[in-house]
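Bit of a strange request maybe. I'm writing a small parser for C-alpha cell strings and I need a real example to test against, not something I typed by hand. Could someone generate the C-alpha cells for this chain?
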Amino acid sequence: MGKKFIRNDLLQAYQNLQLQKLTEITNSAYLGNLKEVGFAILFAFSFIFNFTFANFTASSVLPLCHDDERSALLEFKERHINRDLDAWKFDCRPKAASWKPEEGDVDCCSWDGVHCDKNTGHVIKLDLSNSCLFEIINLSRLSYLNLSGTSLSGQILSEILELSNLVSLDLSLNDGPGGRLELQKPNLANLVEKLSNLEILDLGDAFIRSTIPHNLTNLSSLTFVSLRNCELEGRILSSFGNLSKLLHLDLSLNELRGELLVSIGNLHSLKELDLSANILSSELPTSIGNLSSLKKLDLSQNRFFSELPTSIGNLGSLKVLDLSRNGLFGELPTSIQNLFSLEELHLSFNKFSGQIPSSLRNLTQLIVLSLSQNSYRGMIELDFLLTSLKNLEALVLSSNRLSLLTKATSNTTSQKFRYVGLRSCNLTEFPNFLKNQHHLVILDLSANRIHGKIPKWLLDPSMQYLNALNLSHNLLTRFDQHPAVLPGKTFDFSSNNLQGPLPVPPPETILYLVSNNSLTGEIPSWICNLNTLKNLVLSHNSLSGLLPQCLGNFSDELAVLDLQGNNFFGTIPDTFIKESRLGVIDLSHNLFQGRIPRSLVNCSKLEFLDLGNNQISDTFPSWLGTLPNLNVLILRSNTFYGIIKEPRTDCGFSKLHIIDLSNNRFTGKLPSKSFLCWDAMKIVNTTELRYLQDVIPPYGQVSTDLISTYDYSLTMNSKGRMMTYNKIPDILTGIILSSNRFDGVIPTSIANLKGLQVLNLDNNNLQGHIPSCLGNLTNLESLDLSNNRFFF
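Reply from user aminoacidic:
Good idea to test on real output. This should exercise your parser:
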C-alpha cells in the first residue's frame, strides 16, 4: 500500500495532539513552580527574549503588549512569511498575515498565534504551526518549539543542535516548495545527542533514511516519540523497553524489519503504540498483554503470523485495536470479550477462521467492526447482532464465507451507519436495516445475489453524505424510479442485468462504472458537466450513437475512458486536451470510422490504447511513438493501410510491451529499425509480478476494499488461439502482425527483443529463410510464422 494520506485529516489530528501536549507541558511547568518558562515557539529576532513568570497579582485591566515586542513581531512578519502564497498549493494558513501596524495602541496579544502573559503583557508563546513558513527560524533558549505544518523544506539547520534546553520539538508535517524537510547532516543521532532533555519528539514526515539510533533510548524522560513516515530502516531497538515514561510511540510507515520484541511489554505507561505499515514479521508476543494502559494499538500492514494471544484480553483500557493486513490466523480468543472499552476493532485482510464469536455482542461500545477478507464461515443473524451494538457506525464483513440473515419486516435500527461493507455475503435482497440510513458514506453490497430493482430509498436525495456505492456483480435489473438520479460521487453498478438509459450522476461524480449490463441509448449531454470525473467505464452494453464532442476535454481528471463493446459510430472526437491525465482509452469493438484523432498526442500519460475491431481507415500512427508511457497499442481488425515507415531520427515507442496490428491492410517490409527502438521488449523482466491497472483511491479509513481497482484487459492471438487477459501482467510482451500484406524477409533486428514472449506473423507474404537468430529469443512462448512463403 502506498504511503499517501489526506493532509487535512492529518493536520487536524496533529493539531488536537499538540493541544494535548501543550496542556501537559503547561501543567508540569506550574506544578514544578518553574521560574523560567521557554516552552513557547519563538523566533529569530535581532535579540533574545527572556520570559519570567511574575508573581500573581490581581488586576482588573489586562496590560497591552510591549511596543518593542510588537515591532519585533512585525519585523519578523516582513522577513520570514512568504508573500506569494498562491504560488504554492499547501494546506497551510499564514497566521502572521493578520498582523497589521495600525495607528494608535495595538494590542499584539490579540493577534493570531500570539499569546501573552496575563500579568506582564510579555509574549510567552508564538505558535506558527501550519503557517506557510518557508525557512527555519534561528532560535535560542527555548524549551518548546513547534513548527509543524509550516512548509519548511530542505536540510534542518545545524543551529537547532544549540537548543539544548528543548523539552519539546515538533517539526512534523513539513513539505515546502523544496520538498520534504530533511535530517541528514546533522542526522537523527546528532540531534538526539545534543537535545538530551527532550520529552516530546515529533519528526513525522521528515526525510531521515537511517536506522533508529541507539542513543534515542538513552533519553529517559521521553513521553512522546513520533518518527512516522521517515523512511527508517533496520530493526526496532530492544532498548525501547527502557523508556518507562513513554506514553506515545509512533514508528508507522517506515521500512522497519524483524520481530516485535518481548521487551515492548515493559512499557507499562504506554497509551498509544503505532507500528503500522512496516515489514515486521513474527508471532505476536504474549508480553503485549502487559500494556495495560494502552488505548490504541495499531500493528496493521505488517507480516505478523500467529494466532491472537489470549493475553490481548488484558488490555482493558483499549479503545482502538487495528491488526488488519497481516497473516494472523485461527479463531478469536474468548478473552477478547474483556475489552469492554473497545470502540474500533480492525481485523480485515488476515486468515482468521471459524465462526464469528457471538461474544462480540458484549463489546457494546464498538463504533467500528471490520472483519472483511478472512475465512469466517457460517450464518449470522444480522438483526440480532445489531440490537446489541447500538453505537455501531461501521460494519464491514465483506469477502468471508458468511451467509447473512436479515428480517425484511424488522424495524430499522437506531444506529447511524456511515460505512457498511457486505460484499460476498450471500445476500438475496437489500438488508432492511439500511432504510433511512441517511448518514451513509460508503455502501458496498457487491458480489451477492441481490435481484430485482434498485429501490427508491437508496436513490433518495436525503442520502446526501453517500460518497461510494458499489452494487456490482449482482442480479439487478432496473432502477425503481425514472429518470434514475444518483446520489454521491462514486458508483459501481457493473456486471448486473440493468436495462434502460444511463442513470444520471451528480456533477461532482468521480467514478462512473456501469460495464457489463444491458443499458441502451446514447451518451447524454450531462456527461459534459462531470468535470471531476476520473473513470468512465461504459463497456459491454448496448449503447449507440455519436460520441459527444466534449468527450476528450470535459474533465481534467479523467484517467480511464472505456467504451468498448457497444454500438457507437461516427468519428472519434479530435478534442483531447494538452496535459491530459488519460492513462487508458479503450474504444474497441464499436463501429467507429475515419482517422485516429491527432489530438491523442496530447495524452502524455497514456499507457493503453485499444481501437481494435472498428472501421477506422488510416495509415500507421507513427506519431503516437512520442507518447513516453505508451505500453499497449491495439489497432487490430480495422482498415489501416500502407507501409510502416522507418523512424528517421528519434526512436519511438520505447515503452511498448504489446503491439497488435493484425487483420488490417498494411503492406511493405517489416519495420526493422523500429524493432531496434522498442526498448521495453529487450528486457527479460525478473522483477516482482505486477498488473497494469488504475488504482481507485478508497473513501474513508475503515477498509480499502470497498471499491476495486480498474484492471487493464485485452484479447490477443497467442499459442494458436485468442486468449483473454482480464489482468495484464507488466511482464507480458507481444508483437502480433498477422493477416496483413507484409512482404520481404524477417529482419534480424527482431532478435534484439530478448524479452519477447509472443510473435505472430501468420498470414502475410513474407519470404526467404527463417533467420536462425530467432533462436536468441529464449523468452518466447508462442511463435506463429504460418501461411507465408518461407523456404527451407
